[in-house]
Design goal:
globular; ABC transporter involved in vitamin B12 uptake, BtuC; 72% helix; single chain; mainly alpha; 16 helices; two-stranded antiparallel sheet
Length: 390
């Protein structure tokens, strides 16, 4: 019984570690900009697919190079999703600050676009996107050199957009068929793909106890260690760097920070990129726990928001406590170990047996969080500051 309980706690901590990595960036972004980013789960999904691509790139190299692919996949996943987040912030989010409902709807639309992009992406689409970017932004840059650019901007931008889209579509189709680039075959498709852990992450460390034994999976230990590195990195960045100081200042009082000369727009962009990059690292971690599909992010985004709300918006310590607590309690209830623990007590046995599934465990967690927020609506560590108090 003790071995089973400890094994469930260990599994819950590893799930909480994944939630913590994802929630770190979301907590900073939500606390700083008030943006409800429903595409955060899809950024995790992109990080997971990036890990899959890196794995496939290392496979032909054989050992010992393949054993090191995960060490390259983590920073690459961070960079890819940080770049996507930066484009999202510059292209969509920055026009919607102060309008939370619009940001919620916009990021929900972006999440659907990213899901469909992963299902359908092929060489024709990549060629078309690359051509559109070159043509549209290249033409825009050329026109920006004109003295009367501001006067013609309103009608030039939509015309350039339509022309660039048309040329990119036709050219991509032509090049794809000419060079036989498997124009109709998606790279990933709708089915799930599997990421194989390196040999040194397979298996586990067997712990012997008087009442039995349980295994500490090396993969889950790696995820916990990766989480510790991310938390330490975020803490050092926020507390010891100049940009971290600016982020904390804008979080507490945006208007006063702008008056003191802090470039709030640049702070927003950097913060959103870092938060997106951390989502990519979380995606890299979850790719080691199971198959990756276009819907992978949807399984984690709600739990991630719950971590942010329960921990306290923008609070690193609260995010850590909430992530580990939600992950552990969710795993304990869903695994059925609590039902076995309270087996001698019939009412408790029936209660925990009823919730001893993954879906029903989430219902129980929601109920507990609602009850907690009635007592502490600001979370475990409520936000403080002049702007918050006003």
């Amino acid at each position: 019984m003790l071995a089973g309980l400890l094994d469930s706690i260990y599994g819950g901590i590893s799930i909480g570690a994944v939630l913590l990595i994802a929630a770190l960036g979301l907590a900073i972004v939500f606390g700083l900009m008030g943006v409800i980013n429903l595409a955060h789960g899809e950024l995790m999904m992109l990080g997971a697919y990036t890990t899959f691509v890196v794995q496939n790139a290392f496979k032909p190299l054989g050992e010992p190079w393949f054993a090191t692919y995960i060490l390259f996949a983590v920073p690459i996943a961070f960079l890819v999703t940080a770049l996507v987040g930066l484009v999202l912030e510059r292209g969509v989010i920055r026009y919607l600050y102060g309008r939370p409902l619009e940001t919620l709807l916009a990021t929900w639309g972006v999440s659907l676009i990213l899901q469909q992009f992963v299902r359908s992406v092929n060489w024709v689409m990549i060629i078309g996107i690359a051509l559109f970017v070159v043509l549209f932004f290249g033409a825009l840059w050329v026109l920006s050199k004109r003295a009367d650019f501001q006067g013609i901007r309103n009608w030039a931008v939509p015309i350039l957009c339509v022309l660039s889209l048309g040329i990119a579509f036709v050219s991509g189709k032509f090049l794809g068929e000419t060079f036989k680039l498997a124009v109709t075959k998606p790279w990933f498709g709708t089915q799930g793909v599997d990421v194989t852990a390196p040999a040194w992450l397979r298996g586990g460390w067997l712990v012997e106890l008087s009442g039995g034994s349980f295994q500490l999976s090396y993969v889950r230990l790696f995820i916990i260690g990766l989480t510790i590195l991310c938390v330490a990195g975020v803490y050092l960045f926020l507390q010891r760097s100049a940009w971290g100081l600016r982020i904390r200042a804008v979080t507490q009082n945006r208007s006063m920070s702008a008056c003191l000369g802090i470039p709030t727009a640049k702070v927003d962009a950097i913060t959103f990129a870092i938060g997106s990059g951390l989502a990519g690292v979380a995606g890299c971690a979850i790719s080691l726990l199971g198959s990756v599909s276009p819907n992978t992010g949807q399984n984690y985004v709600v739990d991630t928001f719950m971590v942010v709300v329960v921990g306290g918006v923008g609070k690193l310590a609260g995010t850590i406590v909430a992530a580990l607590a939600i992950g552990t309690v969710n795993y304990l209830i869903g695994s059925g170990i609590l039902a076995l623990t309270f087996a001698p007590i019939k009412p408790l046995l029936d209660f925990f047996t009823f919730f001893a599934t993954t879906s029903m465990a989430k219902v129980m967690i929601f109920a507990l969080i609602i009850a907690f927020l009635q007592v502490r609506p600001g979370g475990i560590f409520p936000q403080k500051g002049r702007s918050y108090e006003l």
